[in-house]
Each structure stands twice: as structure tokens, then as C-alpha cells.
Amino acid sequence: MSDVAERVKKIVVEHLGVEASKVVEGAHFIEDLGADSLDTVELVMAFEEEFGIEIPDDAAEKIQTIKDAIGFIQSQSKK
Amino acid sequence: MFDLQGKRALVTGASGGIGGAIARALHAQGAAVGLSGTRVDALEALAAELKERAYVLPADLSDPAAADALVRAAEAALGGVDILINNAGLTRDNLAVRMKDEDWQKVLDVNLTAAFRLSRACLRGMMKKRWGRIVSIASVVGATGNPGQANYAASKAGLVGMSKALAQEVASRNITVNCIAPGFIVTAMTEHLPEERRQKLVEIIPAGRLGVAADVAAAAVYLASEEAAYVTGQTLHVNGGMAMI
Ligand SMILES: NC(=O)c1ccc[n+]([C@@H]2O[C@H](COP(=O)([O-])OP(=O)(O)OC[C@H]3O[C@@H](n4cnc5c(N)ncnc54)[C@H](OP(=O)(O)O)[C@@H]3O)[C@@H](O)[C@H]2O)c1
After folding, report:
1. For B72, phi and psi rounded to 5 degrees?
2. Cβ of B39 less than 6 Å from ligand 1
3. Closest-CA residue to B151 (of B109, B194, B88)
4. What residues of chain A, 40 to 69, have a C-beta less than 8 Å from chain B?
5. What residues 86-145 of chain B have any CB closer than 8 A to a CB of chain A?
6. Helical H runs in chain B?
7. How confident is the model at residue B197 (pLDDT cuts 50, 70, 90)?
8. Nearest-angstrom CA–CA distance, B32 and B11
9. Distance between CA atoms of B108 and B17, rounded to whole angstroms?
10. How do strand B175-182 and strand B132-137 relate by DSSP bridges?
């Protein structure tokens, strides 16, 4: 597992208080992990902080799963 | 009860009558206070009076960039903002048919839009901390209307609607968002009223007197406190019974 994936999962586990075993790549924040809309905003804020990036609103809307988050963050750090 | 030790409060309009009283009252309960306004000398005098835990943070809130910059400055000075008091406000009274666009805009910008921007900027830190209090100073006029104050009444009613929406967004994070609607309080904003008008006003106030800034400050301390955790999206009317809403 990549370092980005691990850090993303750690943030999600801590923030949503869910079991690490549930935080798989395909997990949907709202449908599978019980997040509400404010949680998703907070997760994006936490990702921004952890990775020192800016996630614009239109990109943030598309980040709905663990995989989406990892993909977006990786695409940013490659730039 | 109402202990605010360890809490950090940003008070806008702290150079004015009500804001100064709110800052003093929060400070007396143990909070550290960020004092904002445009008149630096008045802010410095208040900070000197409070001695410790008081920081002067000048800002002209008619400038669209000022709100974000003020919150950054407050977070730097205080280490964070747990309590935001949106109190800065002004009037530009005129009958609607004579009211200029700029008088409408200026009042909306400072009284409502700046309060929104300040709230938005403070919410990030409050959400993270899972604790916060936002109290905006509205007015009885926002609920009842008042001839000559279409702009002011709209801005104050706007604060009430804004607070209800924000309250619902962040209630699950232990952040409450409320308004205080003062009636007629003796401050610089109201002292120019002719004695005759003043007398008439006292007659329609069941408490038989005009309000003082400390009456409003006590309500602010309550809403900022831990004890008010279950009160959100509300407007607390502090008006001596002048309007019962
Ligand atoms: N007095 C009443 O009867 C009454 C009734 C209902 C509601 N209120 C509300 O209570 C609040 C405080 O009013 P007050 O009675 O204490 O009047 P005040 O003494 O005139 O205070 C107004 C405060 O707002 C600040 N302010 C005005 N324009 C500003 C700007 N562009 N940028 C930053 N700060 C600005 C002033 O700061 P500077 O002077 O430093 O510019 C001052 O500290 C207001 O929102 C008012 O609408 C008052």
C-alpha cells in the first residue's frame, strides 16, 4: 500500500471513528462509512492540511470514496 | 456557572458601547479577548483597562478582504477563536424613497456580509475543535421593522436567518449560533435622539427605562457559555419588554 493511501485511511479512521477494516479503497464516505455532508467537508480540509494541497470545490465534490481521495491527492503531488 | 477561562473570544465593534461591554463581560468571566474596530485609540484604551488577555485587532469591515484577515490575526494573537461576537454595525437611515444605493450597500456589507465572512472563517477552527459559539447582535428592528431603516432592518433580519442556517449546519459539532436582538440601548448609536423621542420610547417600554450595554453583555456571556450548549438558532430579545416576539 502506498504511503498516500495509508495516510488517507488513517485520517478517515480517526475522523469518522470507524474501524480500520471498513476503510477499504472502494468504501464510500457517506454510504459505507456513515459520514454526513459536513464530515466530507471536514475530511477534505484534513486532506488539504495533511498533504499541503488545495482541493478546489469542484474536485472536492467528486471525492466520495477512499479511492477518489487517494487518486486526487496522488495526481496533485505528481504535478 | 458561565466560566469562560481558557476560551478565546473575538469581538467586533469592541470600540463601541455594546461591543465594549461585551468584551469586558467575557473578559471578566476569564476569556481572552480580541478587540476589533476601526478606532484604534478606543481599542487600545479598552485593552489597557483590561490589562491582560486583551489584544487590539483593528479592521475596517467595509473592506471585503478584512474579515478573513481579521480572523487570521485573531487566531495568531489568541491561538484560536472559540467565541465570535458579530457586533460591529452601523446605520444609514433614510426613508426608502430617498435611500441611496450606497447607503443600502454599506449597511448590508458591514452588518451582514462581514458577519457571514467572519463566521465562515471562524467555523473551520471551531469544527476542528468540536466547540464554538457564534453570537450576532441583531436588533428588535429586524423583527418589527422601523420606518427609515429598510437597510438596517434587512441586515438585522438577515443575521437571524443566517444564524438559523449555520446553527443547523454545525450543531452536531457542539457549535451554537445565536442572535441577541437588543431593543433601545443607550450608546453612541442612539445618544443623538432628541429628549422628546427618548421620553416617548421610555413610555412604550414596560421596564420603564432604556437599556444599557451591560444588559446586552449579560446575554452574550450566557450564549457564549458552556451552560447554553443546548440553545442554538435562537434570538434572545433584550428589550425591557418593548416587543414580545
Ligand atoms: N444601541 C442600540 O440601541 C442598539 C439596538 C439594537 C442593536 N444594536 C446593535 O448593536 C451593535 C453595537 O452598536 P452600539 O450601539 O454599541 O453602537 P456604537 O457604539 O456606534 O458601536 C458600533 C461599533 O461598530 C463598529 N463599526 C462600525 N462600522 C465598522 C466598520 N466599517 N468596520 C469595523 N467596525 C465597524 C464601530 O467601530 P469603530 O467606531 O471603531 O469604527 C463600533 O465599535 C450594532 O450592531 C448595532 O446595530 C444597537
Report:
1. -60, -45
2. yes
3. B109
4. 42, 45
5. 124, 127-128
6. 17-28, 40-50, 66-78, 101-108, 114-129, 140-144, 150-170, 195-204, 213-224
7. confident
8. 11
9. 21
10. parallel
Q: Positive or negative, the Cα torsion across B196, B202, B208, B211?
A: negative
Residue B134: enclosing H or E segment and its boundaries? strand B132-137
Out of B55, B152, B222, B230, which one is annotated catalytic? Answer: B152
SS3 of residue B241 by DSSP = coil
Are the CB atoms for B22 and B11 separated by under 8 Å? yes
Q: Give tens-digit pLDDT for A6-37.
A: 999 999 999 999 999 999 999 999 999 999 99
- What SS3 state is found at B179? strand
- Whether residue A38 and residue B172 make contact (CB cut-off 8 A), yes or no, is yes
Q: What percent of chain B has pLDDT over 70?
A: 100
Cell numbers for B69: 484577515
Residue A78, pLDDT score: 66
Which residue in B128, B130, B166 has the most chain A C-beta atoms within 10 A of its own C-beta, making it the best mutation to test that interface?
A: B128
State the Cα–Cα distance between residues B243 and B85, nearest whole angstrom. 23
ipTM: 0.82
- Whether residue A77 has pLDDT greater than 80: no
Interface residue A36 vs chain B (CB under 8 A): yes
Nearest Cα of chain A lies from the Cα of B19 at a distance, in angstroms, of 31
Strand pairing class (B54-56; B175-182): unpaired
Contact (CB, 8 A) for B82 and B9: yes
Q: Edge-to-edge strands of the sheet including B235-238?
A: B54-56, B32-35, B8-11, B83-86, B132-137, B175-182, B235-238
Residue B10 dihedral angles phi and psi, to the nearest 5°? -110, 120
Please give the average per-residue pLDDT across B5-34, as a whole number. Answer: 98
Q: Are strands B235-238 and B54-56 parallel, antiparallel or unpaired?
A: unpaired
Range B201-226 burial, b when 16+ CB lie within 10 A, else e: beeebeeeebbebebbbbbbbbbbbe
